[in-house]
Design a protein that fits this description.
Blueprint: H1 5-27, H2 33-40, H3 44-72, H4 74-93, H5 98-126, H6 130-162, H7 166-169, H8 171-185, H9 198-221, H10 226-248, H11 262-292, H12 297-302, H13 305-325, H14 328-345, H15 354-382, H16 388-420, H17 426-455
Helix pairs in contact: 1-5, 1-6, 1-8, 3-4, 3-5, 3-9, 3-16, 4-5, 4-8, 5-16, 6-13, 6-15, 9-10, 9-16, 11-14, 11-15, 11-16, 11-17, 13-15, 14-15, 14-17, 15-16, 16-17
Family: Belongs to the major facilitator superfamily. EmrB family.
GO molecular function: transmembrane transporter activity
Organism: Kitasatospora gansuensis
Amino acid sequence: MKPPARHKRLVLATLCATMFMAMLDNVIVNNALPRIGQQLHSGVSGLQWVVEGYSLVYAALLLTGGTLGDRYGRRRIFLAGLAVFTAGSAAAALSGSTGTLIAARMFQGLGAALLTPGSLSILRHVFTDEKERARAVGLWSGVSALGLAVGPVLGGPMVDAFGWASVFWINVPIGVAGLLLAARVLPEFAARTKRLDLPGQALSALGFGALVYALIEGPARGWTDTRVLALAAVAALALPAFVAVEARSADPMLDLRFFRDRVLTGAAVSGFMISFGMFGAAFFLPLLMQDVLGWSPSDAGLAGLPMTAMIVVAAPLSSALAARRGPRLPLVTGLALCATGLGALSLYGADARYPQYVWVLLTMGLGMGMTFAPVSITVMQRVDPARAGMASATLNTLRELGGVIGVAVLGAVLSSRLTATLGGTTNAAFVDALHQALRCGGTALAAAALLVALLLRPSRGVTPSPVAGLPTPQPEPAPR
């Protein structure tokens, strides 16, 4: 029996609100860092870990969160994750030291890793009609992207008005309301598998955790630092071991056939590269606006409103386009627009005025909005429902890794260029180095657009299977 339309809307509203909160927390803390440093006496390294501690745990445990939901029930794991995330937010707001705040941020990352994979897989089960599902995913993706885009816009004014703790307190009422509503409206689905892949769980957490840690510490410590090299070596051993274990497992947490499907691979590349370019740019733009142009945190945040508006407009449009024409056009277009935006931003220096480059922010927002929904729709359409949590977790892990790697790689480019141009003034050197990093990011995104265009090209005379290379979908178990 299909759930009534009102119930579906409540499910969608619950999932959108909680995903907005989880995505918002990725970026809202950035504008609070100077105030946190002043009040908690945090050094640069401590502030970096306030931001990246969340990403470390989130990326390391996303696959675990997906497979736990597949095995023990997506509603149950989603509710557990939401409770952990809300408690972590309250602990962060109440923190009296840098160490406590970093620990609370890691606890938030654990909660986000548990709730994020279940969100998309629950949507798949509730919205069974393809057109209806595409609209739902378009809205869900738009709200998720909105959380990333609106974080800086909200963060600056909130810090100015209420202090740094407010960027964490905002999650608590949303989380409590989400828990109460989710407990009433979210359906549960019977688990299809019984065994827990403990070797895979351990190796994935160790490998992804070590990789993210090394990428976070590399720019600050130097890439030849003993700790960085040791962690990179751990990742280099653990991740291939994880792949080998999963290839031999009868019930893997990561079905490697996911990557045999070139359409799914194209969607995964798109998600990774959008995060690579746009998270990298988002990390450096506040530094340009505040440290070089002299803007306040509130002004720097409000400057991103055009980009936010374009994401809101483009996400549902790209969802409808993907449902009609397939994912190739919106994904390639979105990557190309983001590449154009990053490259164009490198044309403006410290003397540029906002009206001159606002079109660049509009272009980047349009590009981001074009990619979020088609990636999610592609994964849901082509993966066995029993593996929906795994597939969603895989996608989100790649997105999170793309963001961390983007910050690390573009940061390394910026640092190298800055070292080579110290003969000029500080601001001039920084702007020159930033331009170099932006051009590298734009080039990488342009190459990704070409690769995705090739991966998603239609096969002549062949209608692609909706689950190419993956198990044929079975009838979905009835919700309880």
